[in-house]
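[Help] Beginner question about ligand-bound structures

Sorry if this is basic. My supervisor gave me a protein sequence and a SMILES string for magnesium ion and asked me to "get the holo structure". I don't really know what that means in practice or what format the answer should be in. Inputs are pasted below exactly as I got them.
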Amino acid sequence: MIAAFACADAPRSAVPSAPPVVSENDVLLRAKGIAKILGGRTILDDVSLTMRPGDIKVLIGPSGAGKSTFLQCLNYLLPPDRGEIWLEGRLVHGSNTAELCGLRQAVGMIFQDFNLFDHLSAVDNVALALRKVRRYGKDQARERSLKELERVGLASRAGLYPAQLSGGQKQRVAIARALAMDPKILLLDEPTSALDPELVGEVLAVIRDLAANGMPMIMATHQMDFARSLATEVLFMEGGRIIEQDSPAVLLAPGARTRTGDFCGKLANLRPADAEGEMDGVAPDRGVGG
Ligand SMILES: Nc1ncnc2c1ncn2[C@@H]1O[C@H](COP(=O)(O)OP(=O)(O)O)[C@@H](O)[C@H]1O
Ligand SMILES: [Mg+2]
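Answer (accepted):
No worries, everyone starts somewhere. Holo just means with the ligand present. The predicted complex, written as structure tokens, is below.
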């Protein structure tokens, strides 16, 4: 980063440095008062969020809480009915195609069901957006795509089609495709919940690796081990609102009387026989605790 290089040459002062000021300058993405109405119902009601470098936010809450709708509003896959999205200090205008393209490149999305093109090989799935959106030439797009597939451990599967890949491999291709856009933030909507339990680990390993390398992310998940170990903040959604918001250490402290702790207790108590259904409004990710 340029600022870091500038600091490296600055003279050292004997005066103790002041505590860091929380500045607007380092805000990557800000959602202010997002509301969304679908089918005549208020699905999101005044939801706000701020993402700074290094933030790993985990969205949890019962099925129907509005998690997917909120993630889609954040990069305008669903235009909010009220509220504002700010990208790096600039208000995104939904009517401006160039601004929307910029937002969608900067804020990558990973879906539960992968959203790959079945008629394209893994490498071509990754290369497509590089060619269409970033105007890469054919060879350049292929080279970059192979690099991204290597990053998610799939270099040897580049020529295979989605039907020839496991669910975990398909999700890793989808992650490679998102990374090829050089996103500043990744949104992940229950990325492991469509996977058989034995495939959850390989996808979480890739996500952990991205987090360790500083990729800011917002992830809807019921993988509470992930939330506990990596989240800088847990946001609990219910009825279209964020009703609790704090570090996992606070919200999930043993004995904490929080809605989040209560919900996670129910997830932990799910027996395998419950795992396909819903219990008390809890729709589990498959592989909870994995
Ligand atoms: N296109 C739509 N039309 C009407 N209602 C919708 C539509 N999409 C989602 N909903 C409703 O919005 C609510 C929130 O959905 P969603 O964001 O998918 O929740 P979550 O991801 O937390 O399970 C649900 O009650 C769902 O039925
Ligand atoms: Mg959802």
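A couple of things worth pointing out: Strands lie at 29-38, 41-51, 56-60, 82-87, 90-91, 107-110, 185-189, 217-220, 233-238, 241-246. Residues 197-212 form the longest helix (16 residues). Feel free to follow up in the thread.
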